[in-house]
Amino acid sequence: MNKCIEVHQLTKTYDGRKVVDNLTFEVEKGEVYGLLGHNGAGKSTTIECILGLNTPDSGSAKLLGKEAAKHRKTVFEKVGVQLQQSHYQNNIRVGEVCEERAAMYSHPADYHYLLKQFQLEQYIHQPVAQLSGGERQKLSVAIALIPRPEVIFLDELTTGLDVAARREVWQILKLLKKQGMTLLLTTHYMEEAENLCDRVLLIKEGQKIVEGTVDEIIKKSPYNNLEEAYLWYMGEEKLV
User: Fold this and answer.
1) For residue 208, how many C-alpha atoms fall within 13 Å in the half-sphere facing its CB?
2) pLDDT above 60 (res 85)
């Protein structure tokens, strides 16, 4: 398999604190890879460095074989991104958001088809602000797919959604996985990681704690489920 993302000894410091600390990992083409860690663990900063939105102090991050900051246009055409905070203009409608995004690419996907696939076509004339949380998150994935990306980044996509909406989004991501899409996602939900990820990386204070499949992560711990294993790796679960 080809390496889609290569992160090597990545380090980023803010105000004297290492937010990302000598982090190294790789993501293969067609893989769903999960970054797991508490708030402030460095997950979002790592993604920003990979995308070239943030400059690391040292180390390197390559996306599709290139440093995104140096090859922004080339990489931009092949990557879909949904970041934690998706901001839209006041009163902008669903169709307008999609049209604006499609205009940024040479060969965009048909956003009408994407909206239909995500069961959002009936909202095309509706302001984004009036969508439910689940509908907004589905829209963010649809928008991320407009460039026909080879890899897509999803940063805490389902945070704040109810169980039904979260599972609906999972079904979409599973479909993308079947289609061979490479996904890098961050999540606080262990069930989400178990359902979606081929491999996961646990990080704490910017450092790698453990990496592997969900089964491998669990087997290396004293527990038999990912949630308890995760807390144990983070130093929060003690054996009784």
Assistant:
1) 17
2) no
Please check the confidence at residue 9 and state whether its pLDDT lies above 90: yes
Q: What is the four-CA torsion angle of 91, 95, 97, 101, rounded to 10 degrees?
A: -160
Q: Where are the beta strands (DSSP E) in the chain?
A: 3-14, 17-28, 32-36, 58-63, 79-82, 151-155, 182-187, 199-204, 207-212
Q: Are 27 and 4 in contact (CB under 8 A)?
A: yes
The SS3 assignment for 212 reads strand
59 CB-near residues (< 8 Å, 6+ apart): 7, 8, 9, 10, 11, 22, 23, 24
Give Cβ neighbours of residue 106 (< 8 Å, ≥ 6 apart).
Answer: 77
Q: Distance between CA 180 and CA 23 in Å, rounded?
A: 26
Stronger pLDDT, 116 or 159, i.e. the higher one? 116
Going by DSSP bridges, is the β-strand pair 32-36/182-187 parallel, antiparallel, or unpaired?
parallel
Q: The pTM is what? A: 0.90
Please, which contacts does 102-109 make with residues 24 or more away whose CB atoms are closer than 8 Å? 102/146, 104/147, 105/77, 105/146, 105/147, 105/148, 106/77, 107/148, 108/146, 108/147, 108/148, 109/145, 109/146, 109/147, 109/148
Give, as one character, the DSSP assignment of residue 240.
Answer: -
Q: Tell whether the torsion through CA atoms of 37, 42, 48 and 52 is positive or negative.
A: negative
Q: 3-class DSSP state for residue 121?
A: helix
Q: Which residues pair with 186 in a beta bridge?
A: 35, 155
pLDDT of residue 237: 63
